[in-house]
Write a structure and sequence with these properties.
Elements (H helix, E strand, L loop, with lengths): L2 E11 L4 E2 L4 E6 L5 E7 L19 E7 L1 H7 L12 E7 L3 E10 L4 E3 L4
Parallel strand pairs: 1-7
Antiparallel strand pairs: 1-2, 3-4, 3-5, 5-6, 7-8
Length: about 120
């Protein structure tokens, strides 16, 4: 039996070695038309509270997570003004029955990386 799909995320500030609290996160569905699904922010542990797409709301397709790291680092007095990275977009395809999709963002004012976590 296929596992229900769900989407979650968290953000780590690798410049200071801490969870990135207060990073704005938007989830956009890209097809059939671009649509804002959710707007939230990361908590003290760097995680967006709860699932961005719980099983009951999960619809397979192309999505984009948009992380507002520029404002986050500006508030912390890090990086350039204007910021090198403003909003970091991460495009993903979510399929039904693939279990837990977890998309971590590891970032600094000058770089970022992501992967499919667990």
């Amino acid at each position: 039996m296929a596992e229900s799909s769900v989407l979650s995320t968290h953000v780590l500030n690798v410049a200071q070695g801490v969870p990135a609290e207060g990073v704005p996160v938007e989830l956009w569905r890209l097809e059939p038309a671009e649509e804002l699904v959710l707007r939230t922010a990361t908590g003290p542990d760097g995680r967006a509270e709860g699932a961005l797409l719980p099983p009951a709301a999960f619809v397979p397709g192309r999505y984009e997570l948009r992380f507002g790291v520029g404002d986050y680092f500006r508030r912390r007095g890090l990086g350039a003004d204007p910021p090198f990275h403003d909003v970091v977009p991460v495009r993903i395809f979510l399929a039904e029955g693939q279990g837990h999709y977890h998309v971590p963002l590891l970032c600094s004012p000058w770089s970022y990386t992501t992967y499919r976590g667990s």
